[in-house]
Write a structure and sequence with these properties.
- The structure is a single chain.
- The chain is α/β, with parallel strands linked by helices.
- The protein has a single domain, classed as Aldolase class I (TIM Barrel).
- The protein is 32% helix and 16% strand.
- It has helices at 3-9, 47-55, 85-100, 155-174, 189-194, 209-212, 214-224, 250-262, 287-294, 309-317, 328-332, 336-342, 370-374, and strands at residues 17-19, 22-24, 28-30, 61-68, 105-110, 127-128, 137-140, 143-146, 151-152, 179-184, 232-236, 270-274, 301-304, 323-326.
- The protein has an 8-stranded parallel β-barrel, surrounded by 5 helices. Strands 1-2 form a two-stranded antiparallel sheet. It has a two-stranded parallel ribbon with strand order 6-9.
- Helix 2 (47-55) runs parallel beside helix 3 and helix 4 (155-174) packs parallel to helix 7 (214-224).
- The longest helix has 20 residues, at 155-174.
- The chain starts with a helix and ends with a helix.
- Bound molecules: flavin mononucleotide (FMN).
- Flavin mononucleotide binds at residues 31-34, 65-66, 108, 183, 185, 235, 274, 304-307, 326-329, 354.
- It comes from Streptomyces zagrosensis.
- Residues 18-345 form the NADH:flavin oxidoreductase/NADH oxidase N-terminal domain.
- This is N-ethylmaleimide reductase.
- GO terms for molecular function: FMN binding; oxidoreductase activity.
Length: 375
């Protein structure tokens, strides 16, 4: 074996890792990505989904696209669900294939709450923590639309939503997933509850930080049940910047210090943290931004946003993260782990095919050949 290859194998991204009961052969994680390929009325994943995830089975861990926990959760076109038996059975084909290819796969649970649109709900208003328009955009069958003022969720709505998450996790368990990830990223329902500018509730799901994170913690506990209290990851994005109400102001970051620290009392297998956006595409990610939350959480941490091979290795070597998730690089390089191991060039993806169409830009990116690498 050449010296170059031996040193490539020595890179931190290729070390084994244990993420709260999930045993990973490497630390290169497929980040969750909505690809809008479930273009069917029942919102079931298709053969194409199996091919897409199967091609990426070399990842230390696959985190699926955000997946609807209920019909009320819907806020984007052609995204699959996990609330029906038909969806469960279709996901089983995906997990079976990934497992046959030696991979591990967890399902990201998604609920858009107020970041939806009446067009997704037969004209009915979406519901959120308070009757406040989150002022973000949502992708409807008619294209991108501005959100509207939602209905404030009642206590009964909240109880039903937690139950929907629990049922979705039970379905994921039966569908053969290795775990679930609670999607609290961006402007999703859980992020709306965490946000004091949108959550003006005066009951125990609002008022202060403890109240605002109650929904998140109740959902974590509920979805952990089918997994015996293990295998539940949580995705947070303190630095999320969107519209008028989602900003990475210091007050927001301080809220998240406390929210992250509270995760320690709950069955959380890993924290999946989306770091600060980079100013320019080639800028290195801000490791201090991730390190801030590393200090608040004792469990495993997956870092994300703008990493490449060098910065991925660096953040693990520095002890700031245990693993790194890649989204855009993994779209265009299904064999990303092999490419890192062999020091190969990466293909650049086409953003125009991220959300549309079928095969194109989804399952037709080339897998690298050894001959090229040996040159
Ligand atoms: C096409 C696309 C779809 C995405 N969908 C999701 C999603 O469903 N859930 C989620 O948590 N993040 C989603 N993200 C965010 C990514 O997981 C990730 O945070 C972001 O792309 C930055 O990582 P990267 O620099 O490795 O691309 C999406 C990103 C892209 C590009």
């Amino acid at each position: 074996m050449s010296t170059a290859l031996l040193s490539a194998l020595d890179q931190p991204l290729l070390r084994r890792a244990d993420l709260g009961g999930l045993s990973l052969p490497n630390r290169v994680v497929l980040a969750p990505m909505t690809r809008a390929r479930a273009a069917n009325a029942a919102l079931v994943p298709t053969e194409l989904h199996a091919a897409y995830y199967g091609q990426r089975a070399g990842a230390g861990l696959i985190i699926t696209e955000g997946t609807w926990v209920s019909e009320q959760a819907i806020g984007f076109v052609n995204v699959p669900g996990i609330y029906s038996e038909e969806q469960l059975l279709a996901w089983r084909r995906v997990t079976d294939l990934v497992h046959a290819l030696g991979g591990r796969i967890v399902l990201q649970l998604w609920h858009t709450g107020a970041a939806s649109h009446p067009d997704h709900h037969g004209g009915a208003l979406p519901a959120g923590p308070s009757a406040i328009n989150p002022r973000v955009r949502t992708f409807t069958p008619g294209g991108f639309r501005e959100t509207v003022t939602p209905r404030a969720m009642t206590r009964a709505d909240i109880v039903a939503t937690v139950a929907d998450f629990r049922a979705a996790a039970e379905h994921a368990h039966r569908a053969g997933f290795d775990g679930v990830e609670v999607g609290a990223l961006g402007s999703s329902l859980i992020a709306q509850f965490l946000n004091p500018r949108i959550n003006e509730r005066s009951d125990e799901y609002g008022i202060d930080r403890t109240g605002r994170r109650r929904l998140l913690l109740e959902i974590i506990d509920a979805v952990a049940e089918p997994w015996g209290g293990q295998r539940v990851g949580v995705r947070l994005s303190p630095y999320w910047t969107e519209g008028d109400y989602f900003t990475a102001a210091e007050a927001v970051l301080a809220d998240y210090d406390e929210h992250v620290s509270a995760l320690g009392d709950h069955p959380v297998a890993y924290l999946h943290l989306r770091g600060r956006d980079v100013a320019m595409p080639d800028d290195a990610p801000d490791l201090d931004a991730i390190a801030r939350y590393r200090r608040q959480f004792d469990g495993p941490l997956i870092a994300n946003n703008g990493f490449d091979q060098a910065t991925g290795n660096a953040i693990i070597e520095a002890g700031v993260a245990d693993a790194v998730s890649y989204a855009r690089h993994f779209v265009a390089n299904p064999d990303l782990v092999t490419r890192f191991a062999l020091g190969r060039e990466l293909t650049v993806g086409d953003p125009d095919t991220y959300y549309g169409g079928g095969v194109g830009g989804y399952v037709d990116y080339p897998m690298g050949a050894w001959e090229d690498a040996a040159r």
